[in-house]
Specification:
It is built from 9 helices and 7 strands, in the order ααααβαβαβαβαβαββ. It is α/β, with parallel strands linked by helices and 253 residues long. It has a domain of 177 residues: Rossmann fold (3-Layer(aba) Sandwich), CATH 3.40.50. The N terminus is likely disordered.
Length: 253
């Protein structure tokens, strides 16, 4: 989820804290969602653990991507929702992907993992100027193969940002657009209006927090306005807490 200008999250210490967290986690493995330390909470987490174990057996590769994205790279996603969303994307051919709202890069890592090794993955977020180089270097390390990475640390609603995205695409359409930036009604609609036209017919436009009950969140409203007009699918885990997240994806006609 993006930190938008004027948000409450402080910028200072972000990268120091991230490096400390990565050191603490150590090497991530696909099994890291089910650690020994979690056994203390086994009673409450047993249903989720069983559900995750079933996914690991069904699709070890996607489970591994999900585990590393959440446990090592701090993706703010529910495991079952992210797993099913990534399975959906892995069944499609993704060469160019744009993520609006990237924060630490956990979901960006996941998008890199399901994009062609020679593809182009882009991130737009409103990070402070002084952290741009540090975060861009980190995001390049999240890529795989010979993937091209473009990071634009600006307000997604700025005309200069849209122009830079268009230049980076160089006339090529997007295969996947993931919207997780400004969650206000006006902001969510604006991101969709600005960047959805860049997606090719048959491409995917995904929204995060479609099941949110937070006051002022415009993602559920935007999702409801889209899902009935397009081929759509929802990845919402309403069984295991925390509630009120969810990922929705439409296939552009």
């Amino acid at each position: 989820m993006a930190r938008v200008p004027g948000g409450s999250e402080p910028a200072t210490g972000r990268h120091r804290d991230l490096e400390h967290a990565e050191t603490a986690w150590g090497r991530s493995t696909p099994q890291s969602l089910l650690t020994v330390g979690d056994l203390r909470k086994a009673a409450g987490r047993l249903p989720l653990a069983l559900a995750l174990a079933g996914r690991a057996v069904r699709d070890p590769r996607t489970f591994g991507i999900t585990a590393v994205a959440i446990r090592r790279h701090r993706a703010l996603q529910k495991p079952l929702e992210l797993f099913e969303y990534l399975r959906f994307l892995r069944g499609r051919h993704t060469v160019r992907c744009l993520e609006i709202g990237s924060l630490w890069g956990g979901t960006f890592f996941a998008h890199c993992a399901v994009t062609s090794p020679s593809g182009h993955v882009m991130a737009v977020d409103a990070f402070p100027d002084e952290s741009g180089d540090v975060m861009a270097a980190r995001f390049r390390r999240l890529a795989r193969g010979t993937q091209r990475v473009t990071c634009i640390w600006r307000d997604s609603h700025a005309k200069a940002t849209a122009s830079e995205v268009a230049r980076a695409l160089d006339g090529q359409p997007l295969d996947v657009l993931f919207l997780d930036g400004d969650h206000s009604s006006e902001g969510a609609a604006r991101d969709y209006e600005m960047y959805a036209p860049l997606v090719r017919p048959g491409g995917v436009i995904a929204l995060h927090d479609i099941d949110s009950t937070s006051e002022g969140s415009g993602m559920p409203m935007l999702w409801r306005s889209l899902r009935d007009r397009h081929e759509s699918v929802e990845f919402v885990d309403r069984v295991h807490p925390p509630h009120g997240l969810g990922i929705g994806a439409i296939v552009k006609g």
